[in-house]
Description:
Order of helices and strands: HHHHHHHHEEHHHHEEEHHHHHH
CATH superfamily: MFS general substrate transporter like domains
Structural class: mainly alpha
Helix content: 55-70%
CATH class: Mainly Alpha
Number of domains: 1
Shape: globular
Distance between the termini: 13 Å
Strand order of the largest sheet: 3-4-5
Strand content: under 5%
Largest sheet: 3 strands, antiparallel
Number of helices: 18
CATH architecture: Up-down Bundle
Amino acid sequence: MTSLLTPETSPAPASPPKRGKEWLTDWDPENAETWDRRLAWQTLSITTGTLTLAFVSWFIASAIAPKLTNLGFDLSKDQLYWLTAMPGLSAGVLRLVWMTLPPVLGTRKLVALTTLLMLIPLLGWGIAVQNPNTSFTTFLVLAALSGIGGGAFSGFMPSTSYFFPRRMQGTALGLQAGIGNFGVSLVQFVTPWIIGFSMVGFLGSSQSQSFPGKPATEAWYQNAAFVYVPFVLVGAVLAWTMLKSVPVTANVRQQFDIFNNRDTWYMTLLYIMTFGTFSGLSGQFGLLMKNLYAGGNTEIAKTLSDGTTQVLVHGYSIPDPVKYVFLGPLVGAGARVLFAPLTDRFGGAKWTLVSGIGILGSVLYTMTTLTPDVSAGAVSLDAQFHHFLYGMLAIFFFTGVGNASTFKQMPMIFERRQAGGVIGWTAAIAAFGPFFFGIGLTMVSPVAFYAVGAAFAVLCIVITWVRYARPDAPKPS
C-alpha cells in the first residue's frame, strides 16, 4: 500500500512559503503520539455546524417553492419542479470547484468564506417572497444561488478528513455528513412554524396565503430564510478564529489524477445511488406528495361544524405535505449518523451492499403506491398514502446507511490526498440528484422514473459485490 507520507502526498515542509500561522506543520494523524485529538474534534464540530447551515441554505428552495402558489405567485407545476431542481444543478457544478479548494485555501479560509457566501441566497429568498411581482426568473436565479450551500460539502468534507486517522474516518465523516444532512430536515420542519408570526417588524410585511376550502391566513415567509442569518454570521466568525489548516501538497492539476483510477468511477456510481437518491428525494418529496395525493384529483368540499370548509377527495382528507416532508431527510440523516461507527467496526463495503439491496426493495415497494386509486374510497386512499409514506421513508433510511458506508470505503480504497479528491468528486456528481429527480419527474411518470432507479440499484449492487464486498474482492473496504 502506498504510504500516506510519500513526497507527493506528505504535509508541506515546516516553513512553507506564503503560509500564515493558521497552517499546521508536521501534521500526521496516523501518528498517535503527535496527533492533536482536541484540534481534530474542534475542527469537526465547527465544520459540522456550518455544514448544517449549508444544507439549510441549499434546500431553502424546497421548503418555500411548494407554497409559492398559495401566496398568489402564478407558477406552473413544471416551474415549481424547476425551482426545486435548480439548486441540485448549481450545487453539482459548484462542488466541482469546491473539491479543488481544500489544499489551495486551507480549512480555515474555505469554511469561513463559504459560510459568508450563504448569506446571498438566504437574504435573497427572504426579500423575494415579500414581493408579489417577483418573477419566475428571479426565483430561478435564487434557486441557483442556493447551490452555494450544496457546493460547500465537497470542500468541507475533504478538509475535515485531513484531521483524522483512517481508523476513525468512517465515524468522523459520518458524523459530519449525517449531522449536516439534518439541515435538510431542519429547514423543512422549521419553515411551517417560523412563518406563522412576525419575528421582528423591520424584517418585512406579511403575505396572505390561501388553501383550497380554507380561509386565507397571514404568513411571514421571509422568516424561513432570515432566521438563519445570525447563525451563519456566528459560524463564519468561529471558523475564522478557531480553525487551522493542514498543508497538503496538491495543486489543481495534481488533484485530477484520481480519474485514472477505476475505483473513482465505481464509487461515483455508488454514491449517486446513496446520496444522489437522498438529495434528489429530499428536494422533490414535498412536490411529489402534493402532486400524487394532494392535487390533480376530483375535489369535494365539506362544511365542518365550526363553519370552515374542508376539501375532500371522495371522502379523503388531502394530506398537507408540510407535515410529512421533513421526515424523509430526518430518517436519512439519522441513519447516516447511527451507522457511521458501525462502518468503522465492520467495514464499509458490507453496509453499502445492504444499502443497495434495501434501496432496491424499497423502490419496488413504493412503485406500487405511485398511481393512487381515488375511486377506491377514503379508507383505501388513506392506506395507499401511508404505504407511499412508509416506502419513501424506507428509501431514505437505506440511502443514509449507504451514505455512511461509502464515505468509510473511500479513505480505505485511496491514499489520503486522493481520498479527499474522490470524496469531493463523488459528492459533486451526487449533488445533481435534486436536478435529475426534478427534471426526470417532469419528463416521465413517477412509475417510469422509479423503474429506472430500481435498475440502477441493481447495477450498483453488482459493482459492490464484485469489486468490494465478496470474499477475496479486489478492493475490500
